[in-house]
């Protein structure tokens, strides 16, 4: 009897990269990014704080979801673009220091950014807002440098919820990937992955918040995604405590450039 060769299953591949220089604004999807020890270069370099020095993010307001930002660190120029194409741009000048409360979990140090952006963001939010540049690179990330979520997991959420689809952009994950079974990432904790020139180590699950309920296009609420996830996955435990889990954290072992289409391959720990 002839022997048939055994072929290895194809590796999962990067399907989407998501980044925003200003936490709380709409994410953009570049074809490639540079991973540094603290995350995607330039990601979440800025964040918004309210009058009580608390983080004001997508969980609390979707007012800025239709706005995107670009930051040129060499020139020190920040540009915010609205849905109608209007732009607010200028040189970033740093003012007074602030320590903002992130989720009652940790404080993030930064300096208030002087210029026209606070007026724009305050008007949209209907409350006083300060734009802050974090002292640390990528200082506005929630907890860990990167988050990962499989496309199949989002498809499974839609299936379980009786929906045609759920927009994966709702989850604002650093890296989306295709080519696995639903929730395969849940089994990857501790695994080391090579992606392009970079090496990552996968951590535990991401505890989701109300931000996933917001439409990624306009920030409006309507679809109760958090409840839909809980409906079939229940509650679990994460580094932030018990809650609704969807996706996983990761940190960077070896910096390098990654691109859409790159394979996620096992790699030895460094």
TrEMBL record:
<dbReference type="GO" id="GO:0030151">
    <property type="term" value="F:molybdenum ion binding"/>
</dbReference>
<dbReference type="Pfam" id="PF03476">
    <property type="entry name" value="MOSC_N"/>
</dbReference>
<dbReference type="InterPro" id="IPR005303">
    <property type="entry name" value="MOCOS_middle"/>
</dbReference>
<protein>
    <submittedName>
        <fullName>MOSC domain-containing protein</fullName>
    </submittedName>
</protein>
<dbReference type="Pfam" id="PF03473">
    <property type="entry name" value="MOSC"/>
</dbReference>
<dbReference type="InterPro" id="IPR005302">
    <property type="entry name" value="MoCF_Sase_C"/>
</dbReference>
<dbReference type="GO" id="GO:0003824">
    <property type="term" value="F:catalytic activity"/>
</dbReference>
<dbReference type="InterPro" id="IPR052716">
    <property type="entry name" value="MOSC_domain"/>
</dbReference>
<dbReference type="GO" id="GO:0030170">
    <property type="term" value="F:pyridoxal phosphate binding"/>
</dbReference>
<dbReference type="InterPro" id="IPR011037">
    <property type="entry name" value="Pyrv_Knase-like_insert_dom_sf"/>
</dbReference>
<feature type="domain" description="MOSC">
    <location>
        <begin position="110"/>
        <end position="267"/>
    </location>
</feature>
């Amino acid at each position: 009897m002839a022997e048939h060769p055994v072929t290895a299953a194809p590796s999962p591949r990067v399907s989407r990269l998501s980044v925003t220089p200003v936490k709380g604004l709409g994410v953009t999807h570049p074809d490639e990014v540079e991973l540094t020890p603290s995350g995607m270069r330039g990601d979440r370099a800025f964040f918004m704080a309210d009058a009580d020095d608390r983080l004001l993010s997508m969980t609390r307001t979707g007012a800025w979801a239709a706005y995107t930002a670009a930051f040129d660190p060499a020139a020190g120029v920040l540009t915010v673009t609205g849905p109608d194409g209007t732009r607010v741009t200028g040189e970033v000048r740093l003012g007074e220091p602030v320590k903002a409360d992130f989720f009652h979990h940790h404080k993030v140090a930064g300096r208030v950014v002087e210029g026209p952006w606070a007026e724009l963001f305050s008007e949209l939010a209907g409350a006083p807002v300060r734009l802050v540049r974090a002292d640390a690179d990528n200082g506005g990330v929630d907890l860990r440098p990167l988050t990962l979520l499989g496309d199949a997991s989002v498809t499974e959420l839609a299936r379980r919820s009786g929906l045609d689809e759920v927009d994966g952009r709702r989850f604002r994950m650093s890296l989306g990937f295709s080519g696995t079974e639903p929730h395969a990432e849940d089994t990857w904790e501790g695994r080391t992955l090579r992606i392009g020139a970079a090496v990552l180590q996968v951590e535990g699950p991401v505890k989701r918040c109300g931000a996933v309920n917001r439409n990624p296009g306009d920030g409006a609420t309507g679809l109760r995604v958090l409840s839909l996830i809980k409906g079939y996955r229940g509650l679990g435990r994460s580094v932030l405590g018990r809650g609704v889990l969807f996706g996983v954290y990761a940190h960077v072992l070896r910096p390098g450039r990654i691109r859409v289409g790159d394979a996620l391959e096992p790699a030895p720990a460094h």
